[in-house]
């Protein structure tokens, strides 16, 4: 199978997961780039930031039209993560491949476990203090910068439990946070980004954007809980294989 076909197929599956599930779908991007398309861990996390930025910005515009983005809260939360995201992006290229792969597999496992837990759709918690909000936003930015993941599976519960948003607003607002953090991390990796294989990255990103729209339609037809459980178990398997790869 040609690299172009693999890139289109992987992008479509990633976009489908993002559109159907929201937060957490982008964690498929890095393993797909490494194990299907032959990217190094460092190049994969950089390419992932490109793909996550494009797909999240596209999804953000759709949620904004639906009125589910809380711009002020999202901007404040994202602002705390911009510098850590940029620093994490600069640090990532200096880390050994095994460290990046191992850390990513742990984050992927965490995402899977988080998805297996039922999410409440009631009112968010009372907003925390500014210090805690800033600390949480900074931590999310650092994860995005180092590992090249959007971190929606972390951003959504943080916006509910720390900022106090309702679930629907948290999902829409998380896309603002993810877009801002991913772009900041990408700027810190500008030199690495120029050397990416754009003949692979561009089709992957385009297919992911288109797949996200199909994912939204799929979510309307199939139980969200069923989709989330299937994806979570598949993600746990991917995380386990990546850890095994590091160990060997």
From TrEMBL:
Key words of the record: Cell membrane, Membrane, Transmembrane, Transmembrane helix
Subcellular location, record wording: Cell membrane; Membrane
TM region(s), chain numbering: 43-62, 74-92, 98-116, 137-163, 169-188, 195-213, 225-244
The keyword Membrane is annotated on this UniProt entry: yes
Lipid bilayer topology: Multi-pass membrane protein
Domain of life: Bacteria
Chief place where the protein resides: membrane
A single cellular component GO annotation: plasma membrane
Family stated for the protein in its record: Belongs to the 4-toluene sulfonate uptake permease (TSUP) (TC 2.A.102) family.
Protein name: Probable membrane transporter protein
Organism of derivation: Streptomyces triticiradicis
Taxonomic classification: Bacteria, Bacillati, Actinomycetota, Actinomycetes, Kitasatosporales
């Amino acid at each position: 199978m040609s690299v172009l076909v693999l890139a289109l197929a992987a992008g479509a599956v990633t976009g489908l997961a993002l559109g159907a599930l929201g937060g957490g779908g982008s964690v498929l991007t890095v393993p797909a780039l490494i194990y299907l398309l032959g990217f190094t861990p460092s190049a994969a996390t950089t390419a992932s930031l490109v793909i996550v930025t494009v797909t999240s910005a596209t999804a953000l515009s759709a949620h904004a039209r639906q009125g589910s983005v809380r711009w002020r809260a999202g901007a404040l939360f994202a602002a705390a993560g911009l510098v850590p995201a940029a620093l994490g992006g600069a640090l990532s290229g200096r880390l050994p491949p095994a460290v990046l792969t191992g850390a990513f597999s742990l984050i992927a496992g965490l995402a899977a476990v988080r998805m297996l837990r039922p999410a409440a759709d009631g009112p968010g918690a009372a907003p925390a203090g500014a210090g805690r909000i800033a600390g949480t936003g900074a931590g999310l930015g650092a994860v995005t910068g180092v590992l090249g993941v959007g971190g929606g599976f972390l951003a959504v519960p943080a916006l509910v439990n720390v900022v106090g948003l309702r679930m629907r607003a948290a999902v829409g607002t998380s896309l603002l946070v993810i877009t801002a953090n991913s772009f900041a991390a990408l700027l810190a990796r500008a030199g690495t980004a120029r050397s990416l294989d754009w003949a692979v990255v561009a089709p992957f990103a385009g297919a992911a954007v288109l797949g996200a729209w199909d994912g939204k339609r799929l979510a309307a037809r199939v139980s969200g809980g069923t989709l989330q459980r299937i994806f979570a178990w598949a993600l746990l398997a991917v995380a386990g294989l990546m850890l095994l790869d590091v160990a060997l």
